[in-house]
Write a structure and sequence with these properties.
- This protein is α+β, with helices and mostly antiparallel strands.
- Among the domains are: 101-218, OB fold (Dihydrolipoamide Acetyltransferase, E2P) (Beta Barrel); 244-388 and 408-413 and 628-644 and 652-733, 2-Layer Sandwich (BirA Bifunctional Protein, domain 2); 441-593.
- The strands form 6 sheets. Strands 6-9-10-23-22-21-18-13 form an 8-stranded mixed sheet, sandwiched between helices. Strands 1-2-3-5-4 form a 5-stranded mixed β-barrel. Strands 14-15-17-16 form a 4-stranded antiparallel sheet, with helices on one face.
- Helix 8 packs across helix 10 and helix 17 runs antiparallel to helix 19 (697-704).
Length: 819
């Protein structure tokens, strides 16, 4: 009975809605009546004049005939038929909703001069030469890589002719509108096709039909900057963004083909997972079952290990991952990973596979794309395969050299397995101050970091730069080709800007000493070292193995002190300063721009990291430790395994990161494949609680069922694309990214939930607020009793908080980018 009354009230409300004003509607009706705009599509379409083209009329008549042969839409849906509106709106409907199946685009392959073709696309601004001659560029919607440029030529010589009517139609269509164009192809006169340029065609207009006029209130300029809530317009009018998305799609295809050729199969893993203490914060998805929620996966890590136990020995997937972490230029709350896992394999097998895959990626990039400098960014532009190179089987001659580019187009460099370097974590931290070294930073511009024990610096000097007892003092040198005065001005301005630098945080325990080499001053500007230490420093810089290349006027020497302890974390203060100095010097032109790609494998990471004040939740153990990457990473050797309990901070992991130009684009590891060993690491070393251990019971069961040895890797695909496209943020290679506050301003997410949703999903229930009357509650949403247990989530604050991020600290090691 209640449902019958509710249904009757809904129908009655809809019939009488025009008379209800100023009254709040039930929420289920609100979306219908919020669609109120100051203008409509049909209001912008002028009434057709008598000069409509014959082609347009034929298209309309065909559309109307096809519609007349079909049953009325309302009748076919079983509803009441609505009479046609014989007004401008009805005519506009017929004009904009033509039958595309009868007006299909002509395939681009095989375009020939004199051929009559139909093209779908967007028209650009029209150029009127005279009253009977106009030109207009057309973006071909079917040409994915914009390899053909089409220019509409509209001309007429006789009133009332087909060309005259089409010309009048062209003049009434706003720029940037989607159209269907029919015409005759012609090769443009007096033009020569340049290698790598788009093929040009002239299209002599016969008919044109507008599918949806572009509104006049949207202003399109050449260098328009579109705000985030107009991302659809940026996608439409920013060719650089579209090129990056095209490259992303192209490389996904290349990767898929390569992995499938190596017998990998793609497996889709669930997005509705459960909360497990892997290391990073998670997003929870509430359910209508009180106290229960899903968790969005930080990565498919556990699922792909279960696949290994299930006999799927070679797996890959472009996986969506979710982490509730601090937002930075290289992070998003949701991101894409290329997941790879191999059974009966160790870390070296994975490194070899990924290195060859990286070579394949750069080969595809070099074959079809050209780096073009636009506003200081080397932007990828599609140019196609070099057609001057010979096709068919290659001749096997020892004295035959590999053919170079014959079309004169600059192409991306290629990376092969032999070009990728190797370095341990300890070496990277000691000599570069970071676990992701940028190998483009080279001497003599900026040297590596070296210890100063051999200099025997006086204690008075050390005490001036640090308050630490028994510190480790290290140094580096810069040579920017400046005079001592100019070098002093550069480093002074840089150091003064550090308090506002979010990537380089000043150490409260140490202050760097900055010296400028100047032969006109006592001890060449090194008097702070003292006479003996200054002499030792100059002798050291002259050694060939130091790579310091002696000392010259204007050289900048930086000394810094840090704690004398085993390395942990992702960088040191001097390492961050070194990278920031390089970026600033390149920006100001003191160091030449290096556009090469330098790839590096970093291995032998520490298996455990001490918990910091601002660290991620980790695994929730009581040992004061967390897994550096995730708790499933295997120790490097048997000795590391047996030393894990007694000396956990000394244990190394069989983990490996791939770094390109100072950016960690991926990481992986060999996994623990024996249930007893996994239990030992979690229970005895990390000292996880029984509740935390129970969250991994499904994984223990899979490992116990004869799981084979396995290892894997995960590309941070967004990061990889950002490096290849030379953009500062991964938001520039994602179609719909989030802001730094984790918001999608275009669609308005995250959105505030309604009171009904709070009750349905037991979320943010306000204990102090007065309950709604029973008449306003849906029967299924009423609480059963007032003694309902409190929800597991926190109550909603009385006022909506501003979205904030946590203070930026030294980023913890990404959880292997899934790894």
């Amino acid at each position: 009975m209640v449902r019958i009354i509710s249904s009757y009230l809904q129908r009655t409300t809809l019939r009488c809605i025009s008379s209800i004003k100023g009254q709040s509607l039930p929420r289920r009706f609100q979306p219908i009546f919020r669609l109120e705009h100051t203008r409509t599509l049909h209001d912008e379409i002028s009434k057709p004049t008598s000069s409509e083209s014959t082609a347009t009329e034929s298209i309309e008549s065909e559309s109307i005939e096809s519609e007349s042969t079909e049953p009325d839409l309302a009748e076919s849906q079983g509803g009441e038929s609505e009479p046609a509106d014989p007004s401008v709106r009805w005519e506009a409907y017929n004009k904009n909703f033509i039958d595309l199946t009868k007006n299909q685009a002509t395939p681009m392959v095989g375009y020939l001069p004199g051929q009559e073709v139909t093209v779908h696309g967007f028209i650009h601004k029209r150029r009127d030469v005279s009253s009977n001659l106009s030109f207009c560029e057309l973006t071909n919607a079917s040409d994915y890589n914009s390899r053909k440029r089409i220019q509409i030529i509209s001309t007429w010589s006789e009133d009332g002719s087909r060309q005259f009517l089409a010309h009048q139609d062209l003049r009434t269509i706003p720029a940037y509108s989607p159209v269907i164009v029919t015409g005759t192809l012609q090769e443009p006169p007096y033009t020569t096709q340049k290698p790598g340029s788009a093929r040009k065609w002239d299209l002599k207009l016969r008919s044109i039909h507008c599918l949806n006029p572009f509104p006049k209130d949207i202003i399109v300029s050449k260098d328009a900057v579109w705000p985030p809530h107009q991302r659809h317009l940026q996608l439409r009018f920013d060719p650089l963004l579209r090129d990056r998305l095209r490259l992303r799609s192209s490389l996904q295809t290349t990767i898929t083909k390569y992995l499938q050729s190596k017998n990998f199969i793609q497996v889709d893993t669930p997005l509705l997972f459960k909360s497990t203490p892997e290391g990073a914060r998670e997003f929870l998805v509430p359910t209508r079952r009180e106290g229960y929620a899903y968790a969005l996966p930080q990565s498919p890590q556990q699922y792909k290990q279960i696949l290994m136990a299930g006999g799927i020995t070679r797996y890959y997937q472009f996986a969506k991952c979710f982490r509730d972490e601090d937002h930075r230029a290289d992070r998003q709350p949701e991101f894409t990973q290329l997941d790879i896992e191999m059974a009966f394999a160790n870390g070296f097998d994975v490194i070899k596979l990924v290195s060859n895959l990286l070579a394949k990626i750069f080969l595809s990039l070099s074959e079809k794309w050209s780096p073009t400098n636009i506003n200081g960014i080397r932007h990828p532009v599609y140019v196609g395969v070099d057609e001057t190179l010979p096709r068919g089987p290659k001749k096997k001659k020892k004295d035959q050299e590999a053919p170079g580019p014959g079309d004169g187009i600059t192409r991306y460099p290629r990376i092969q397995y032999k070009d990728i370097g190797f370095m341990t974590y300890s070496q990277a931290m000691k000599h570069f101050g970071t676990d992701k070294p940028d190998m483009r930073i080279i001497h003599p511009y900026i040297t590596n970091i070296r210890g100063t024990i051999h200099l025997k610096l006086p204690q008075e000097f050390i005490q001036k730069i640090t308050s630490l007892e028994d510190p480790y003092v290290e140094m580096m040198k810069l040579r920017l080709g400046l005079s001592p005065y100019a070098a002093g001005e550069f480093i002074r301005k840089f150091m003064d800007s550090l308090p506002n630098n979010t990537t380089v945080k000043l150490s409260p325990e140490s202050t760097p000493a900055v010296l400028v080499y100047d032969s006109s001053k006592p001890l060449n500007g090194l008097s702070a070292f003292g006479h003996e230490s200054a002499d030792r420093f100059e002798e050291f810089t002259k050694l060939e193995e130091s790579h310091y290349h002696g000392c010259k006027d204007g050289d900048i020497i930086i000394i810094h002190a840090r704690k004398r302890e085993t390395f942990h974390g992702s960088s040191t203060w001097l390492g961050r300063l070194r990278k920031a100095l390089y970026d600033d010097a390149v920006k100001k032109g003191f160091i030449p721009q290096n556009n090469s790609f330098k790839a590096l494998w970093v291995t032998e990471f520490p298996l455990f990291t001490p918990n910091g004040d601002n660290a991620d939740p980790g695994q929730g153990g009581t040992a004061g430790l967390s897994s550096t990457h995730h708790p499933f990473t295997a120790p490097l050797t048997g000795r590391d395994f047996f030393a894990a309990k007694a000396q956990p901070l000394e244990v190394k992991a069989d983990h490996y990161d791939l770094v390109i130009n100072g950016v960690e684009v991926g990481g992986g590891s060999r996994r623990i494949h024996v249930a007893k060993h996994q239990d030992f690491i979690m229970r005895e070393v990390l000292k996880m609680t029984e509740e935390g251990m129970a969250e991994f019971s499904h994984l223990f069961e899979a490992l116990r069922a004869g799981c084979p040895p396995h290892a894997g890797f995960a590309f941070g695909f967004d990061r990889l694309m950002a490096v290849l496209c030379d953009v500062p943020s991964i938001k520039d290679v994602i179609a719909f990214p989030k802001t730094n506050k984790g918001e999608d301003l275009m669609v308005g997410s995250p959105a505030k939930i309604t009171r009904e949703q709070r009750k349905t999903y037991y979320m943010f229930q306000e204990s102090e607020s007065a309950p709604e009357s029973e008449s306003e509650l849906a029967p299924e949403s009423k609480p059963e009793s007032t003694s309902e247990p409190e929800p597991t989530t926190e109550p909603e604050p009385t006022t909506e908080p501003e979205p904030t991020t946590e203070p930026t600290t030294e980023p913890e090691k990404d959880q292997e980018l899934n790894a």
